[in-house]
Amino acid sequence: MNQPINRRQLLARGAAVSAGLAAAPWVQAQAAWPSKPIRIIVPFNPGGATDVSARLIADKLGPRLGQTIIVENKGGAAGILGTDTVAKAAPDGSTFTISLSTSLLINQFLFAKLPYDPQKDLVMVSQIAVAPVTLVVHPDVPARNAAELQAWITKNKGKVSYGSWGIGSYAHLAGAYMSQALNADMSHVAYKGEAPMLQDLLGGQIQMAYASASGTKPHIDAGKLKIIGVTGDQRMAVLPNVPTLVEQGLKDDAYRICGFVGMAAPAKTPMDIVQRMAKEVNAVVQTPEMREKFAAMGFNPVAGTPEAFMAAYRKDYPVWEQLVKASGAKLD
């Protein structure tokens, strides 16, 4: 039997309906995300490991989100141009970046002034992978492990050159740290990218370098480069028999720390969208197919929550700050 409705109940129902109507556009917008194509900006040129990672993830994200995912390369200025584009984009869940620790963390220590503040203008969505690197030497260097390499460098003070793929890169910072720790006065040679650096290492113009496994493994397998070890706390799946530098006694943070590949969005992007994207990225990265592809590039997949990403970010922050300060690297 229907009960009569008194005046107070009628007013309460009217208020509820009014509130629901007022909230409806926002609720519907959130529930409908993504309602338009999503841009993932890679702040580096096409073809590199970051670009490959972004495209692998985008291919799988599209069907999961029911939207077109567009990967757009916007390289230049050590990742600053593309990252700034994302920092200034509308925070509506339609723009993200997949980038490296370089533009998301380290550049704030290298540059006197950035057009964006990574901690204020961006929200970290998900760390995707950590990226340890190899330490390799020219075959003429008479060293097979970290201890022998250190002894050889010390013996040849002022005569050893190491390369990097750019000022302020991990290859530069780690080489500078090793040189200072050994009082070795090594010479740093900066290149515009890893490929030309490796060409000179193969040719003997420089004696050692830190470089990606994807770049060095073919030359290691061919006997054209000699591997000393890998950075980070765990061995690379692609080089399972090569010990870490930590295993070999180099336990300083400079050898433990790794760069990362991560996703970020404009700072005011709604947290439910950030959380949803992180959940989908994690689901994609944890599939056996993707883990295998990342491992082949020398990456360790670690996709997770925004909270986990920020915890890792805060832990790495003082280490990168100190490495940059110790190297004396500064960019305009």
The Cα radius of gyration reads 24 Å
Q: DSSP helix count?
A: 12
Q: What's the end-to-end separation, in Å?
A: 78 Å
Ranges where pLDDT stays below 50 over 5 or more residues in a row are 10-29
* Number of structurally distinct domains: 2
Biggest sheet, spatial arrangement of strands: 2-1-3-10-4-11
- CATH topology group of the largest domain: D-Maltodextrin-Binding Protein, domain 2
Instruction: Output the CATH class name of the largest domain.
Output: Alpha Beta
Find the count of extended strands (DSSP E, 2+ residues): 11
* CATH architectural name of the largest domain: 3-Layer(aba) Sandwich
- The geometry reads as globular
pLDDT averaged over residues: 90
List the helices and strands and how they pair.
Elements: H1 7-31, E1 38-42, H2 49-65, E2 69-73, H3 80-87, E3 95-100, H4 101-110, E4 122-131, E5 134-137, H5 146-155, E6 161-164, H6 170-182, E7 187-190, H7 194-203, E8 208-211, H8 213-221, E9 226-230, H9 253-256, E10 259-266, H10 271-285, H11 288-296, E11 300-301, H12 306-327
